[in-house]
Amino acid sequence: MSGRNITLALITIIFLVILYFNHDDNVFEPKELSSKYINIVTKENDKSLPTIALFENEQIPRTEVNKIEDFGILGCLPEFSFDEEARKGSIDQYFQSLSEAEPLYYALYANPPEDESKLDLLFDYYNHLPNNPIVSIDLISSCVSSLDNRCTNDFVKGAIASDSKNGAAWVSAISFYAATGNTLGILDSIDALTKTSIFNERFGEKSLLYAQALEGSPSNHFNVNALAGIGMAATSFPAYSPITQWCEQGLDEPEKVNACLILGEQLETRSKTLISQAIGMALQDMVFKSQGNTEAVRLIEKKRKELTLSSDNDLYKKAFIMLILDERLLRSWMNNLDIYGEIESQRLLEDEAETLYKTNENYLCTLVYGLLDSVI
What we know:
Helix content: 55-70%
Strand order of the largest sheet: 1-2
Radius of gyration: 23 Å
Structural class: mainly alpha
Distance between the termini: 28 Å
Largest sheet: 2 strands, antiparallel
Number of helices: 17
Number of strands: 2
Shape: flat
């Protein structure tokens, strides 16, 4: 057994011992929880995640997460994996079996056969069902670094149509056009971006989708899979390096400078993820430095520091640890990411953790949360 797993096992034993010596007859009875921000999953409220309302007459296509079982008294104990390599092999085998039963999961997560590439799997799905925005945008991102002859301007225009009112989709197109040197495509896409009604990188949705894909597998552990889904979602971010290079090379061209400032401001003020906001600030910083605008550079640096300080408090650190252990918090946080963005979802996480554990709905979870005060 690895040192990490031994440590987890010891922590679990300690928790159970403390639980044994401190329990009373009523501590395991569920109590009603009311939050002004979210609907925490309880026995009375066990529902799938809602569709995110983006603007007045439209909703973004969203994959629903199936209902979960009642949150048990040991719900905050960590999941154990004594053989991570075997677990990974089991997951790989499971995705390989989904080529016909679940073609979306197969296209997104299966390892391609020896004579095919990941791009082939995505294109196979896209050619049959071109209206899935997650597949479409993943394909555009994959095409940025590919010389495949299917990665054309016409393909990108068609793929964008599945999510054309979402500014984040246009950022993927901008990255592709920057990588291929299509300045007109970049300028037109930036203009289209400014006219969109929403900006949603679908980061939480993509993370949850990976956990949902594994619900029918032998490795159906929601927290473990959803957290792994965060890594999967991160790989589908737009390739920002072609954009920054295009802007850097055009600092002596007013049209490109203006376009980069507009794009930077859009990313900073509208994106949901910290990385996109940081890239937006970096683009503006690049332009302002080239112009010798020291006041604007100072303001950007101040905003950048505020981003890094957003999670520098003990309450958030406690809540984040509980998020790893408590499925209710994790589901809520991932849902909030796409609605409110990373910064606001951090604040909501703190409030929701305080609300949840003050009600003592689950004795073990509340106990763990309280013990964190002595280690943070």
